[in-house]
Write a structure and sequence with these properties.
single chain, alpha+beta, 4-stranded antiparallel β-sheet, two-stranded parallel ribbon, 6 strands
Length: about 270
Amino acid sequence: MLKTKVSECWQGLEPRSLMMLALDVVESLYGLAVRHKAEGDLLALERELAEVLAGQDAAEQLLPTLFGPLGLAGDWERFFSTDNCLLDRVLARRRGIPVTLGILILHLCERVGVRAEGICFPGHFLLRLWSGEEEAIIDPFTGRELSKREIEQLLRGARGNLARLKPEQLKGADNQAILERLLNVTKAAFIHHKQFSQALACSQLLLKLKPDCPVERRDRGFLFEQLDCHRLAAEDFEFFIQHCPEDPVADVLKAQIAALDLGPKTLH
């Protein structure tokens, strides 16, 4: 079950920092002791960064420092591992994927006074960092500034060769949008590894952010089905059908409900 404290603090997201929200996810999955270890690793990284940057221009040296002596890096070899989605493991390994490394970099930018924002770009989370009046689009997976051509290549990789870059795709995202991105990626990683209970916990958290979202209720229904909670699965499928009757998936779900065993279970 999700911890009450987590659900209560998510009644309003903006007063809480993005990093603390991401650590709420860790706590909801693995408990307070794991969260405390992660907070210790974060504090150690903050101290290392402050020592290296002392007397230097933080805006200019932040990324070279993080992706150099402090060892931050994108995990090319195990991109879809859950280790890359959970902030406690990202902090311990200093390895991650764009959204988790992006959340960490945003937190460190705030600590050292560098203006920055996250961008929920199609298929690849990005950052915008400022140095004075100059701004740059950064790939948090590599720490590199991206050219317009490279951004367009990322877009075509996610949306196909006919996709064209639009200004709204590079708008800054708020905490809720970034947290939803993190939870969706984490849920997908758990499903990939057939860890359905943990995926369900992510789905429950997503429903804290957007209550009664038909698509999320549908997805939660599939997870309930995998966990043999057939009556709960049917309730979620019926909710989707009621709210999205014209969706082609609705007919599939009707057949799915008919195939579920909704009778009482015999205990032995």
